[in-house]
Amino acid sequence: MDSGNNKKGKFEAQALIHLDALHRTALRMTRNENEAEDLVQETFLKAYRFWDKFEEGSNCRAWLFKIMTNIFINNYRAKSRTPQVVDLQDVDDDFLFGQLSALGPAENPEQHFFAKVFDDDVKRAVEELPEDFRLVVVLSFLEGFSYQEIAEIAGLQIGTVKSRLHRGRKLLQKALWDYAVKNGFIKEAAK
């Protein structure tokens, strides 16, 4: 059994380094600064309390995100208003994806795109995604988690993660197309 100081030192070295990433994601999940801070604080309190359950050498970042996601789902989601309804028939499958892939040899065109244009309009577009889609988009595009890690963090099947990520991407594509053209990040094809 670790002494209190040893536990504290290990926790600080391995867990607290992820504070900024957790806060960014909490802010996108809750869309409220105070609730995001509360969510992160509750996450770290729970993580510290159960630090003896953390498997040394495993992915601490993913473990913390799973704790935070579970807290959010259990506490905050119940308070939210009626779920948003999205008519996926209105979202064109290849609306922006083809344009993004033409950006160049970037390994991941979505990350390339977000790196270039991530400002208030883009943040707003991400925040306006329905909650289920927003979570997987944030964990994938902004935090860089793999499908498997997202599935574990969110408690979903990999197929569900892929589906939600696909649908979330389509919704973002539609929301950001005009913005990207207006700011010269991509050129609109001749009609």
Briefly summarize what is shown:
The chain is mostly helical and 191 residues long.
Write out key terms for the chains shown.
191 residues, mainly alpha, Rna Polymerase Sigma Factor, Chain: A, Arc Repressor Mutant, subunit A, 65% helix
Query: What would CATH call the class of the largest domain?
Result: Mainly Alpha
CATH topology of the largest domain: Arc Repressor Mutant, subunit A
Can you give the helix content as a percent range?
Answer: 55-70%
Structural class: mainly alpha
Number of helices: 10
Largest sheet: none
Indicate the mean pLDDT: 78
Break the fold down into its secondary structure elements and pairings:
Blueprint: H1 4-14, H2 19-30, H3 33-49, H4 60-76, H5 97-101, H6 109-117, H7 120-127, H8 131-142, H9 147-154, H10 158-182
Characterization of the model:
The protein is mostly helical. It has 2 domains: 4-79, Rna Polymerase Sigma Factor, Chain: A (Orthogonal Bundle); 88-182, Orthogonal Bundle (Arc Repressor Mutant, subunit A), CATH 1.10.10.10. It has helices spanning 4-14, 19-30, 33-49, 60-76, 97-101, 109-117, 120-127, 131-142, 147-154, 158-182. Helix 2 (19-30) packs across helix 3 (33-49) and helix 2 packs parallel to helix 4. The longest helix has 25 residues, at 158-182. The chain starts with a helix and ends in a 9-residue tail after the last helix.
